[in-house]
């Protein structure tokens, strides 16, 4: 993959790195940030002053529209280091396209591709030491845009700030995930913002997810808002179901995020002639398949979650156990995906992008 970058970004470097203050063996996902960050403002109809500067606080008006109307979207990407110290991104063009798709839905102006790529190159280059080698280690990249115009009138902002932060991470979920199928709350509805990585989509899940956590589940698998009959996504990841040897996942729509890991898993499955069906999946089908022993696996797929096997799912207060995942599709796809990401295997789809 190759993209043109601009040469527009000014850089203010840190005086002293904070890298020695970070315990890379005991990271909490998204808690530590690297030395530098990128920011660019949208003023008078143009993106201006693209700058990389030391990571640190911002000065923003308390009346900025982001605080009142949640006009904000984000992305999740990762940088991976191979055994020779080369650093790669995974399908970054997809993240750029998706942040602009999310932005459009939230009435936010699109961000130029050349500045996006130049920012990634320069930022990662400066903070290259923050990308640790070894499978599982990565530098999580958080591009986001927020509405910065001062004023509480309920209308789109005319000023925005686009930023990129870098956070060293290990696994998002340690071990298998226990999920509960949503019966009361919903993540998204037809015509809503479910397909956008809008900040509020995630905030809205915290309360029902807390209720699920109190009962011992890490995640909720959301169902359609109309009838709670169809399985959709898990909020931090898309979800795959394996019945016999066929892989099923909900089709993308205006309710479901068009996950980059999701589409990569589908491509990997198709390459190996594994049957994949993207179609609405009834909760009752999965319950029935679990009862008759044909449900072999459930796993989540996402940038942060990578491939996360589900060990049990709960529906209407009944817990269904999944068979052990060893040797299953989730193990296979996780290996194939991470081998591409860490430059261990060939890259037949051209997904790797060196920075
Ligand atoms: C990602 O996988 O990048 C996500 O968006 C999940 C995030 C909310 C932690």
From TrEMBL:
It catalyses: L-valine + 2-oxoglutarate = 3-methyl-2-oxobutanoate + L-glutamate; L-isoleucine + 2-oxoglutarate = (S)-3-methyl-2-oxopentanoate + L-glutamate; L-leucine + 2-oxoglutarate = 4-methyl-2-oxopentanoate + L-glutamate. Pathway: Amino-acid biosynthesis; L-isoleucine biosynthesis; L-isoleucine from 2-oxobutanoate: step 4/4; Amino-acid biosynthesis; L-leucine biosynthesis; L-leucine from 3-methyl-2-oxobutanoate: step 4/4; Amino-acid biosynthesis; L-valine biosynthesis; L-valine from pyruvate: step 4/4. InterPro entries: Aminotrans_IV (IPR001544), Aminotrans_IV_CS (IPR018300), Aminotransferase-like (IPR036038), B_amino_transII (IPR005786), BCAT-like_C (IPR043132), BCAT-like_N (IPR043131), BCAT_family (IPR033939). Its cofactor is pyridoxal 5'-phosphate. The modification N6-(pyridoxal phosphate)lysine is found at residue 197. One of its GO terms (biological process) is L-leucine biosynthetic process. Gene3D superfamilies: 3.30.470.10, D-amino Acid Aminotransferase, subunit A, domain 2 (3.20.10.10). Its EC number is 2.6.1.42. Belongs to the class-IV pyridoxal-phosphate-dependent aminotransferase family. NCBIfam families: ilvE_II, PRK13357.1. This is Branched-chain-amino-acid aminotransferase. The lineage of its organism: Bacteria, Pseudomonadati, Bacteroidota, Flavobacteriia, Flavobacteriales.
């Amino acid at each position: 993959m190759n993209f043109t970058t601009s040469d527009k970004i000014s850089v203010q470097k840190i005086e002293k790195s904070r890298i020695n203050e970070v315990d890379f063996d005991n990271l909490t996902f998204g808690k530590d940030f690297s030395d530098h960050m990128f920011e660019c403002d949208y003023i008078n109809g143009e993106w201006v002053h693209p700058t990389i500067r030391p990571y640190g606080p911002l000065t923003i008006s308390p009346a900025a529209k982001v605080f009142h109307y949640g006009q904000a979207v984000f992305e999740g990407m990762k940088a991976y280091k191979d055994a020779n110290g080369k650093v790669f991104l995974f399908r970054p063009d997809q993240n750029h396209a998706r942040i602009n798709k999310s932005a459009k839905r939230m009435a936010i102006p699109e961000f130029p591709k050349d500045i996006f790529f130049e920012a990634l190159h320069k930022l990662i280059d400066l903070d290259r030491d923050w990308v640790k080698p070894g499978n599982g280690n990565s530098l999580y990249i958080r591009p986001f845009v927020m509405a910065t115009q001062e004023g509480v009138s309920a209308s789109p902002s005319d000023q925005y700030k686009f930023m990129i932060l870098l956070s060293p991470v290990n696994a998002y979920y340690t071990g298998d995930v226990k999920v509960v199928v949503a019966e009361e709350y919903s993540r998204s509805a037809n015509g809503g913002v479910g397909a956008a990585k809008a900040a509020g989509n995630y905030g809205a899940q915290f309360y029902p997810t807390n209720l699920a956590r109190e009962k011992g589940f890490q995640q909720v698998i959301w169902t359609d808002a109309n009838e709670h009959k169809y399985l959709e996504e898990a909020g931090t990841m898309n979800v795959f179901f394996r019945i016999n040897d066929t892989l099923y996942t909900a089709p993308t729509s205006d309710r479901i995020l068009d996950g980059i890991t999701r589409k990569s898993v589908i491509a990997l499955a198709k390459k190996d002639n594994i049957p994949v069906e993207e179609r609405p999946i009834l909760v009752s089908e999965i319950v029935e398949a679990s009862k008759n022993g044909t449900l072999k696996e459930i796993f989540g797929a996402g940038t942060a979650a990578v491939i996360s096997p589900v060990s049990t799912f709960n529906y209407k207060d009944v817990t269904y156990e999944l068979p052990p995942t060893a040797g299953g599709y989730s193990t296979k796809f996780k290996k194939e995906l991470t081998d591409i990401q860490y430059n261990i295997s060939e890259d037949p789809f051209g997904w790797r992008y060196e920075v």
